[in-house]
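Follow-up to my earlier ticket, as requested here are the two runs.
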Amino acid sequence: MEIIPCNTCGSSEFKPLFSKSNHKNELFHIVQCIRCSLVQVSPQPSPKEVASYYSEEYFLKRSDRGYDNYFSEGIRNEISRVFGLNLKDLDFQTWEKSLSTTKRCLDVGCAAGYFVDYMQSRGWDSYGMDIAQAPVKFARDKLKLKVEQVDFLEWKPTNVDQFDLITLWASIEHLHKPKETLEKFIHI
């Protein structure tokens, strides 16, 4: 855990908003930057520490901080249904039709790859990445998806890693360095 300056403006002046304990009884403070109003956790766990919070148990054991078998077909179907509703609200299909026949998608923080799977069902060449081992293993082994266990900021894209769509479904708020992540998107 480390106290870090604001990821947006670099200020070290924050006002406390509230505090919350996690499942390991570690206390986290939610603070707001005095200068730019960004809200962040302080102190922040490292990406490696964050990955440890998302053990297989988190995805399988019902709790106030986890799922009741996130890997079940019922949960997968419900999440896919919600993706469909969200894309419909965004009039995604109109934009999607304007793209070439080869459409590529990257989902950062993809967990078990349900959005990767959803986009493949729409004809997209889809990829995902997540820092948590259990959902990545499920995505690869059970769903046969192209998903990597890697922190996005440590990922080394190649010349062929160009995407029409990059998503962060329920992930941006978990990023250690959101500004750097968004800046890296520009280059892929």
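Run two:
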Amino acid sequence: MRSNVAWLSCLQLLCAMSTLTAFPLTPPLDLDVTPRTTVLFNELWGCRRFGGSAQNYSTLLLEEEPGLLYVGARGALYALQASDIASSSDTIDWEAPEAQKKLCLNKGKDNKTECFNHIRFLQRFNSTHLYTCGTHAFSPLCAYIDSREFKMSSVFEEGRERCPYDPAKGYTGLLIDGQMYTASQYEFWSSPDIRRNSPIPTLRTEEAPTRWLYEADFVESALVKESVNSSVGDDDKIYFFFTEKSQEHSLYSSYSRVARVARVCKSDRGGLLTLQKKWTSFLKARLVCSLPDYEFHFNVLRSIFVLEGPRTEDTMLYGIFGLEWKNVKASAICRYSIKDVQQVFEGPYMENPEDSGTKVTEYMGKVPDPRPGS
């Protein structure tokens, strides 16, 4: 895991368009947009609904074997029966205290939306416990939950390095082998970055705001187990998906924001000198979701779903993309294979020369040995 330069992979990922909505141009495209299934509006009244009173229940953890759906909401956590979410549920109330809400309000935050404890992280820690983090009225805290009794520990951990202060900031996180990997803009004036929070060594991306990430808005992360039959031991990778400001001098420079995928090695131990406590395996590439014949690019990533295959190379990524272009409103679903993504990260690079401002250009020199990101 050694490298003295952070690199940007320049070979763009192409995708297969599978769904398109609200496309405004003519002539019409010859795309099959037949829905897989159709549900009449009247039939929705018969759907089972979660009856909790909490708001902003957007943090979900589904565990298929016990048939449970854990829900992180504003000021509460729930354990629901996945087969019938309308049935009675176990509940943990986790509100921010009034004193903390007052401090939040004194910081100029909104006491109707922001000065609450929004649950942002909820993952399985081990066979008996979950781990959760909340914004806690702009003073993040984390805690363990005994999943057998669905009770929260009375001991809390500082969460400012693990959870964003702002409930509206893009955020993603994973617990892998007892280590926490997160990506967000954490504190008030910090730049977005990707971190391994514990245990030592802690790692993060470059602190300079435009060197590795440029106002990134994170949406998802995923572990891809590449160690099977690997000759180098632990070769598992962690992928992060986000939208950020464009830095390229390219055909698509008219788009102010672009979708990205970044990758780090789980076994990364950090580097020396300027790379102390920094990732040495960090790479990123553009996710292109487009209609090439029309030079039409869906540049904002909304969501990613990772479908694991029987083998690592069979894993597929499905992304939901939106469009930021004039007054056009459109969306698309694009599909990528992890094999193609891996090939991109083995391809040519782009670099950020010191005298180029914030723009990156294609690297024309000899690829260093060891290869960046390896």
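The only thing I checked on run two: The helical segments are 98-106, 338-345. Let me know what else you need.
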